[in-house]
Amino acid sequence: MPDSASKLALRISRRLAQHAFKEILPLRADVGVVSFTFDDVPASACVAGAQALERHGARGTFYVAGGLTDALEEGKPCHSREQLRTLLAAGHELGCHSYSHIRCDTLTAAELEQELDRNAAFLAELGVDPLTLNFAYPFGAYAYNAKRICSKRFRSSRITGGGTHEDYADLNALKTHRLYDVHVDAENYDTLLQRTVRRKGWLIVNTHDVEDPPSRYGFTPERLEQAVAAALAAGCKVLPVNAAIDYLLQYAAPADA
Ligand SMILES: [Zn+2]
């Protein structure tokens, strides 16, 4: 448990990180974009989560911590290697979520690099190209050093909370709305979706298990499918994170004179 001096140091470090190592992606596409992401990757996310997207012709991003493979989390089974291979074969994207599902804000640089190397090796075994990797901070816990390291290693890094992106996104601190059974964010999905449509922004959502009943960090298959259908009905593109960045980059550069 950090003492109050280390807590203060962490707060300052995170505040500094908000303004450092930014990679700004201007949002100038003709329509809004919504990305559905799954953290830790419980087995139910591989099945019901993937299906909720696939039924609508869409795909998602699954942030994998290799150390949770074949393990239990919150009493629920996590993914197997076979399930991750099935996701890739169906066109979903796998991202990195550290290997041990550990807070990255309190690790030394060497410890963090080791965690990330280990997970990159795990994902490479499944055929994931390290150059295409996107990252999600476990528990959303980032700080100055972690952002410095992750900004060099990953195409994007996602924190937790913060709503939707309007006008621009910082690829090294992407925000997310939590689609959890227990409501945790100030705004709700429908409001954020409407704003994403209006501002042609980029809304990233995340959840964990996808089952009925879900854990407090998960969502039911029905509600998830409704959220996907609502994004498409509102005219948004539903794209996993790499595909979303590719799509948004096409519009980001100023047109040639
Ligand atoms: Zn996590």
UniProtKB/TrEMBL annotation:
Pfam families: Polysacc_deac_1
Domain annotation NodB homology: ranges: 32-239
InterPro entries: Glyco_hydro/deAcase_b/a-brl (IPR011330), NODB_dom (IPR002509), Polysacch_Deacetylase (IPR051398)
Classification via CDD domains: CE4_GLA_like_6s
PROSITE patterns cross-referenced by the UniProt entry: NODB
UniProtKB keywords: Signal
Protein name from the UniProt record: Chitin deacetylase
